[in-house]
Amino acid sequence: MTPSPVKNRAASKRKYRRFLVNQPALVSCAAVPGLVWTARIADVSRRGMQLILEHPARLDAEIRVQWSNREISGRVRYQQQRGAEYRVGVALATCCDTLLVELLARETVALRRIDQEVAVSATLLRHKIRQMADAAEAANLASEIKSRFLASVSHEFRTPLNGIIGFSELLHDAKAGPVTCDQKEYLCDILSCSRHLLTLINQVLDLTKIESGKMDFQYEAMDPAVLVEEVKESVKALAASKHITVSTECDPCVGTVRADAARLRQVLFNYLSNALKFTPEGGSVVVRMLPEEPAGYRVVVEDSGVGIRAEDVSRLFIEFGQLGKPRTAGSGTGLGLAITRQIVEKQGGRVGVESTLGKGSRFWAVLPVDPTAA
Fold it and tell me: Which domain-ending residue is among 152, 184, 215?
């Protein structure tokens, strides 16, 4: 039975399979004695090779190729230019089985070396992965222990601190007996410091709840405009002490929303107290409540304060991300805005800020009208 042409071509391809070489060589021909061209051997088969020259060369039919400490004779089959390369096809005068065996041996050695390097790299990678897994587990355990410790210590701090605040208020209000003007002033300082410390402790507790995923929300139908007025009243004394005008603008289109009143009050208070802190005397702060499409509402607190540098904006909503000058104004932990972001985002909302240095800032939060549906 006569083999088909297709099978013959396949057998021929296997017989004269080309091996990629990509090694330098020297080329000369008898017609131009003494002239040698540098070339690169692209590939080799049993009966031929392909050379690549940097520049066109006048090669006669018979040429010699010096490569790997041997001289190979052949006949030029074609010369052609492909882009910046000049390619020369050579039919070898003798079969290069020995040369191909040597090439295969080199490739085998190289592949074995690569296999060994891959095996070593894989072992190192597995070791690194185990180290990283152990480090991640240790970090998670340390974070869990830290959160439990902070929660426990914060609770322990809050109990005696409430006692200090309560007794200080009794003394300040002269319910335990008369006090002098100096003593009343000292008691005011004690109350101010104690309340500030209580705020910091509450922030740490909130942060531990967020990290442990235990922050929950109690939603109820409410009018956010009423809550805005309540928070405005709670900062009335601070605003009066700096002669800052606080105004509210609540769009009636917002209407009734479902929200956690305590958490929404916390968001409003954090924004408003922050605005008052960084607004100089005689400035102004505006709280706005606006509808937000498709099914949300936007809380905006705009001040005429010192503003924020563009490079500092990205740090505002990060834990302990307090800014330096020109926004330094009193002590704090840098947790208020970070907690605000977590409260809003865990309800499906988002926060942001626009600010111009020296002209004021506009902090905003967008919340869904019904977080349970969102």
Answer: 215
**Strand 284-292 versus strand 245-250 pairing type:** parallel
Residues 60 and 110 in one domain: no
Last residue of a domain, one of 47, 77, 95: 95
Rounded distance, CA 358 to CA 5, Å?
85
Contacts of 27 (CB under 8 A, 6+ apart): 36, 37, 38, 39, 51, 53, 57, 59, 63, 64, 65, 66, 88
In a domain, 203, yes or no: yes
- Binned average pLDDT, 10 residues per bin, the chain of 374 residues: 51 60 87 85 87 82 86 89 87 76 78 91 94 91 78 76 88 87 88 82 76 80 92 89 93 92 91 91 94 93 91 79 48 73 92 91 94 81
Going by C-beta distance under 8 Å and a sequence separation of 6 or more, which residues neighbour residue 214?
none
DSSP state of 369: S
Whichever domain contains 313, its CATH number is 3.30.565.10
In a domain, 374, yes or no: no
Q: Does the predicted TM-score (pTM) go above 0.70?
A: no
> Are 250 and 284 contained in the same domain?
yes
C-beta atoms surrounding 369 within 10 Å:
19
Q: Please give the full DSSP string across 228-276, using - where no structure is assigned.
A: HHHHHHHTHHHHHHTT-EEEEEE-GGG--EEE-HHHHHHHHHHHHHHHH
Q: 3-state DSSP call for residue 298?
A: strand
